[in-house]
Amino acid sequence: MSAAPALLDVRGLHAGYGAVEVLRGIDLQVGEGEAVALLGSNGAGKSTLNNVMSGLYAPWAGQVGFDGADITGAHYRDVVKAGLIQVPEGRRIFPNLTVMENLELGAFTRARERRAANIDKAFELFPRLRERSRQLAGTLSGGEQQMLAIGRGLMAQPRLLILDEPSLGLSPLLVEELFTLIRRLRDGGLAVLLVEQNVGQSLEVVDRAYVMENGAIRFAGLPSQLLGTDALRRAYLGM
Fold first, then answer.
1. Are 133 and 119 spatial neighbours (Cβ–Cβ below 8 Å)?
2. What is the pLDDT of residues 170-229, one digit of tens each?
């Protein structure tokens, strides 16, 4: 019996800016309901890869497949409609809109008819957002803004949620809460691509991991395999 096709299937992806190549032949897959970590230091090319997959940048070569369709170079709105949703690094909420307005915008392109039900789900996941629903998003704490960014992403009922450096700038307690949430999302059947520098906690909540360095994938396998490889820990993870 053959394995089911990957929900996200990236093959031979090359991309860059001007004459500078950033991605050098990336192969990466995420299965239905699977949590996968993409690890690497700053400058490895992780965010560029996210933005190409999300339709924000056009690739030079290669293919991005999603749910059996070729979405290479598709407009980002069409990528969102397909159910591939990115929560970008730095949160990028709308500071002059309320928490509720930010959440409602998350359903603008996809799942608009289920907006009210999905707001209730977001408030169940993040009770603090319910308490602050009429508050301007720019007045929230950093942790609350990250909750809002993830809640806004979930409003679109993603098939795959890309989380780009979600723990960046959070306190240790909030980081613990964040990774507990990621585990809950995975256990609930949502496919997650977790793009992180927080290696230890990422590997505790994912099924597989990739390590990226200088625009190329240097490792792909199980978390236990990665942690058991001294050379990889030293060379790519600083552990």
1. no
2. 888 888 989 999 999 999 999 999 998 888 889 999 999 999 989 999 889 999 888 776
Query: Could you read off the pLDDT of 161-183 as tens digits, one per residue?
Result: 999 999 888 888 888 989 999 99
Domains of the chain: 32-53+83-237 (3.40.50.300)
How far apart CA 65 and CA 28 sit, in angstroms, is 10
Cβ-based neighbour number of residue 234 at 10 Å? 10
Q: Which residue has the higher pLDDT, 235 or 113?
A: 113
- The angle formed by the CA atoms of residues 62, 63 and 64, to the nearest 5 degrees, is 140
Q: What's this model's pTM, rounded to 2 decimal places?
A: 0.91
Query: Can you list the alpha helix ranges (DSSP code H) found in 139-214?
Result: 142-154, 172-187, 199-205
In whole angstroms, how far apart are CA 155 and each of 6, 115, 168, 230? 23, 7, 22, 41
- pLDDT by residue (tens digit) across 73-100? 999 999 999 999 999 887 789 999 999 9
First to last CA, the chain: 39
- Non-local CB neighbours of 26 within 8 Å, separated by 6+ positions: 10, 12, 13, 14, 45, 49, 62, 212, 215, 216, 217
Structure tokens at 121: 């789900």
Cα Rg of the chain (Å, integer): 17
Predicted confidence at residue 199, as pLDDT, reads 85
- Torsion angle, CA of 225/231/236/239, rounded to 10 degrees? 80
